Amino acid sequence: MSYAIIETGGKQLRVEPGRFYDIELLPVEPEEKVTIERVLLVENDGDVTIGQPWVDGATVEGTVMRHFRDRKILVYKMKPKKKTRKKRGHRQEITRLMVDAISMNGSVLAGTSAESTETSTPATPVEVMPPEAEESAPEATSETAPE
After folding, report:
1. SS3 assignment, position 3
2. How far is 136 from 15, CA to CA, in rounded Å?
3. Going by DSSP bridges, is the β-strand pair 58-69/93-104 parallel, antiparallel, or unpaired?
4. How far is CA 42 from the centre of its chain?
5. What is the four-CA torsion angle of 17, 18, 21, 24, rounded to 10 degrees?
6. Which tens digits make up the pLDDT trace of 83-124?
7. Hey, what's the torsion of the CAs at 94, 96, 102, 107, to 10 degrees?
């Protein structure tokens, strides 16, 4: 399992391919591809690369799913004994980003198409009794013996 730590919107975030994350608003239209080059750390099968401050040649590719506003946060300021009160609300603009791949020097270390084939398991077969076996199976009765 590979992951990267990126910086976006003044925050650091641990990202993995195939997952979506809510980050600060990006000036990109929905369904467009985004490349983030501010990668602080890349981990690939136990091999860790740490940047100073950025990892050279490392990028994280993603697709913008949609833009929306986060939940409202109430900011209430009050000074006791002064009859001063201020109540404000704030809703942060958010971009939902689906991480597609983590690349290092042009080669894809981890991507959604590579991991989806590795982690998918074949469907388990379900055993179904044939109709004649159901008829010959002993039936449970709820009769009680007279006392």
Report:
1. strand
2. 56
3. antiparallel
4. 17
5. 60
6. 999 999 999 999 999 999 999 988 888 777 644 434 433 433
7. -110
Between the CA of residue 43 and those of 32, 76, 99, 139, 147, what are the distances in Å?
26, 42, 15, 58, 73
- Give the HSE-up count for residue 83: Cα atoms under 13 Å, Cβ half-sphere: 0
What does the H/E/C string look like for 95-122?
A: EEEEEEEEEECCEEEEEHHHHHHHHCCC
Sign of the dihedral defined by the CA atoms of residues 22, 68, 8, 35, in that order: positive
Model confidence, pTM:
0.68
Residue whose token pair is 């650091």: 12
Residue carrying structure tokens 């809703």: 91
